[in-house]
Amino acid sequence: MGAGEDAGNATITLDGQGPLYKQIERAVRMEILSGRWPAGYRLPSEHSLMESLSTTRATVSKALSKLTEAGLLERRRKQGTRVARTTETHAVIGFLDVRQDIEGKGRTYSYKVLRKRELVAGKATAFWPAVNAGTPVLALTAAHCGFDTPEVLEERYINLAAAPDAAEADFEAEMPNTWLLARLPCTRLRHTIRAEAAGAAEAERLGVPVGSPLLVSLRQTWADELPVTSVRLVYPADCNEFVGEFNPLEP
């Protein structure tokens, strides 16, 4: 379906997990992120969704309102609900697609989990004040590889109060970003980029000298008021750069 087309008899599939409005929210979000519902695409009416999902209009409206607040949808009286035209740009600026970058250089990509453990939020997660001390957290250390050689290191913390199934997930089969976005909407994102010097462990894994410059992407996301994940991506600075472009006037 192209931009500007209407949904017609399009349907969505719910995952059966949690409150119904959350299931609708996740299902619509995945249609948008997958590209099946592009910018400008008009969603089925609330009444149509209500009937096809056997629920109330209030439940459907709550789900769509959450996605509108997140900037994914535009709702206008008598004109229906459409996918916001800024969706793709926000996704590019907010989320770094490491796999696409590596494959774009002609290298075979793989994601390797180096360490996975459960811990309790406290001193180890002091950098993530949004998560209350005592909250169960999954700590994940991984490497984004090209031809099996680590090119980007990842340190990720997942709030298990938000995504309890993450403790058993196979993140080498389905990467954490994809897994989380399929279950929880990202309604708020904080992204910081800074320079650091390589420590001994990072230098060894990336094959660079100790003390060499690194580019570090720090990202924290929320679903409504619930903190979901904190991610630190580490790149060798001599062969990487971050570029973002936002053009609200582009058709």
Number of helices: 7
What is the 3D form?
Answer: globular
Order of helices and strands: HHHEEHHEEEHEHEE
Question: Which structural class do you get from the secondary structure elements?
Answer: alpha+beta
Quick one: CATH class of the largest domain? Answer: Alpha Beta
Report the portion of residues in β strands: 25-35%
Across the major sheet, the strand order is 3-4-5-8-7-6
Architecture per CATH nomenclature, i.e. the level-2 architecture of the largest domain: 3-Layer(aba) Sandwich
The counted number of beta strands is 8
What is the count of distinct domains? 2
This entry's quaternary arrangement is single chain
Average pLDDT figure: 86
Describe the fold and architecture.
- The protein has 251 residues and is an alpha+beta fold.
- It folds into two domains: 70 residues, Winged helix-like DNA-binding domain superfamily/Winged helix DNA-binding domain (Arc Repressor Mutant, subunit A, Orthogonal Bundle), CATH 1.10.10.10; 145 residues, Chorismate lyase-like (Chorismate lyase, 3-Layer(aba) Sandwich), CATH 3.40.1410.
- Helix content is 25%, strand content 29%.
- It contains seven helices and eight strands.
- The strands form two sheets. It has a six-stranded antiparallel beta sheet. Strands 1-2 form a two-stranded antiparallel ribbon.
- A hairpin with a 2-residue loop joins strand 7 and strand 8.
- Helix 1 packs across helix 3 and helix 2 packs across helix 3.
- The two termini are 17 Å apart.
- Keywords: DNA-binding, Transcription, Transcription regulation.
- It holds the Pfam family UTRA.
